[in-house]
Design a protein that fits this description.
By secondary structure, this protein is α+β, with helices and mostly antiparallel strands. It has a single domain, classed as Nucleoside Triphosphate Pyrophosphohydrolase. It is built from three helices and eight strands. The strands form two sheets. Strands 1, 4, 5, 6 and 7 form a five-stranded mixed beta sheet that branches. The longest helix has 13 residues. The N and C termini lie far apart (45 Å). 33% of the residues are buried.
């Protein structure tokens, strides 16, 4: 497989109660309880962009606010491969999967600051706060291993504070 991995950032955004923001993909509106319908904010890193800058840009683009502070950065780039049926179709057909730098962030705003309606083509159509341990069960199968790592490695940030 000659295709490269797409470099991305991901945000595990914790509220004051230690819950994590998850958002429902707008292209899967009937996926309320189905794995893969809900995910964490994530997105590509622009050429030359620092991942710590990219994570705030992605939050602003995807959930309408960057009212947060970084509390941790995962030390590893986490990768997933697309299933064979999606290679050449998903991610613009240019990548075999994604290589992601994940950040734990503390949300500094209010729920009203989260706005999915600011983008004319929103990626998400709903959001909610979830327990960190729920993440793997919400993820589509090929992303589940990454969500398992995040649930384990960022568990210490899930305490109310």
């Amino acid at each position: 497989m000659d295709l490269p991995y797409r470099r991305c950032v991901g945000a595990v955004l914790f509220n004051k109660d230690g819950l994590v923001l998850v958002a429902r993909r707008a292209d899967l509106p009937n996926a309320e309880g189905a794995p893969g319908g809900w995910q964490l904010p994530q997105g590509g890193i622009d050429r030359g962009e620092d991942p710590a800058v990219a994570v705030f840009r992605e939050l602003e683009e995807e959930v309408g606010t960057a009212k947060a502070e970084i509390i941790a950065e995962h030390p590893d780039w986490l990768r997933y491969d697309l299933p064979d049926a999606l290679i050449g179709k998903a991610l613009g057909g240019r990548y075999r999967g994604q290589e992601q730098r994940w950040f734990a962030l503390r949300f500094l705003g209010e729920d009203a600051d989260i706005r999915l309606d600011l983008d004319p083509h929103p990626e998400f159509d709903a959001w909610r706060w979830a327990r960190l341990a729920e993440l793997p069960g919400l993820a589509v199968g090929f992303k589940r291993p990454i969500y398992e790592v995040l649930a384990r490695d960022f568990a210490r940030y899930a305490a109310a504070g």
